[in-house]
Amino acid sequence: xxxxxxxxxxxxxxxxxxxxxxxxxxxxxxxxxxxxxxxxxxxxxxxxxxxxxxxxxxxxxxxxxxxxxxxxxxxxxxxxxxxxxxxxxxxxxxxxxxxxxxxxxxxxxxxxxxxxxxxxxxxxxxxxxxxxxxxxxxxxxxxxxxxxxxxxxxxxxxxxxxxxxxxxxxxxxxxxxxxxxxxxxxxxxxxxxxxxxxxxxxxxxxxxxxxxxxxxxxxxxxxxxxxxxxxxxxxxxxxxxxxxxxxxxxxxxxxxxxxxxxxxxxxxxxxxxxxxxxxxx
Amino acid sequence: xxxxxxxxxxxxxxxxxxxxxxxxxxxxxxxxxxxxxxxxxxxxxxxxxxxxxxxxxxxxxxxxxxxxxxxxxxxxxxxxxxxxxxxxxxxxxxxxxxxxxxxxxxxxxxxxxxxxxxxxxxxxxxxxxxxxxxxxxxxxxxxxxxxxxxxxxxxxxxxxxxxxxxxxxxxxxxxxxxxxxxxxxxxxxxxxxxxxxxxxxxxxxxxxxxxxxxxxxxxxxxxxxxxxxxxxxxxxxxxxxxxxxxxxxxxxxxxxxxxxxxxxxxxxxxxxxxxx
Lengths: 281, 276
What we know:
A: mainly alpha; Outer Surface Protein A, domain 3; 2 domains; 3-stranded antiparallel beta sheet; two-stranded antiparallel sheet; about 55% helix; elongated; B: alpha/beta; TIM Barrel; 8-stranded parallel barrel
């Protein structure tokens, strides 16, 4: 919302400059070269910006546009290291990062929020033969990035009839292949290596359920059963204990029997690891 | 008589360094090399996990000073009080003696550009920014300082020099200065002014912190920071500021902990010489 006391000229200048620096840029890979602005921005720059000892007005304004995109793309590349290796720098920027950042530019102070909508954006906007693989690698990348520093809440103290939530430090994932081993192979080599080498073979053999979580300051994952996945999934949205347990009754019979036998152990583990909270976030 | 939040010189730790994740191990286990450590507030405001654990370790051993980067004070957007609330909560936890941010803008309604963008140097903008700075300091209840940015452009609308603008904002808002000496140098190269004139024309009594990036050797769009010039500027301004606290910083450049120790020794020796 605009500050009512802002001088008109300052507001106009900031609106113009903001539109300029966040407009797409074609020379993303050439660091520290000063890109030439499009005609409309260039003409305004000549009027609004003074000439400097090194650069023309439009070049000086262009520096800020370069910095804007370099900063966001670097951050995005760091947040999605697996995906970056699948695509390489140029394709990653062109097909994924720039279109997403154009649709969802940063709005708040916290840059950790920047990639929040990316897995969902990918679901809607990335359609290709490898989309199952790409989408799940993106989800795992994002989970590692997000879980590293997200705030956690006090664990369960009393249950009663309150809603119970999965802690933000716990993420559930589903994949038709061994995504964590695949991603580990990818990260062992740098981006350039994968632009000239074949990727490890991916075998889509069965559906796997995973939980990725933060324990103290470490990020750990493990494969879990369908029953446990469904149960924890119910807590993602917030559910009473009674309603969460009804999820178990809907499982196929073999899984249901196993889940019923394991419930005590599962809840003991959730309690020890503080995976559940009554705090709605 | 100034009414701004004044600190006694005995309250001011002399030399601080920017906290860098790649040096956590040395900082948490070695002897104290600096009087305080600067943290980037935003890295700890909404954080659990490793960042929170590292901050707790740091606070157990050393004084911490908070520096923020996303307030974007000169923006046309309303002041973000949700952000300030989190900043204030962190300030209470860290017991920071002051908080600094930049004299710049970076937001418009609906967008945050995450850059330190230059303002036009006009009387109208002084009035606008000073009022917002005063509100921020009143809300935080901690001395607030504005730091000058290194900039790559100036606007034709400017009515005065950068140092006149900077001085007028802090005087009118009744707040402090975190004087970025390296930024003065870089901007002087980019805009063709004399950096000595800049640092000789500011209200020294408001300088609570001097920021030095003496190791910056990277060429940035024409301007190259230079060890000797930056140290010369520091030597001129430091004695006039009643021993303002000095921050050594290295941005994102690779630098070993041993190099940092050498720079700290150099700065401490110079501080002593300059006040004798």
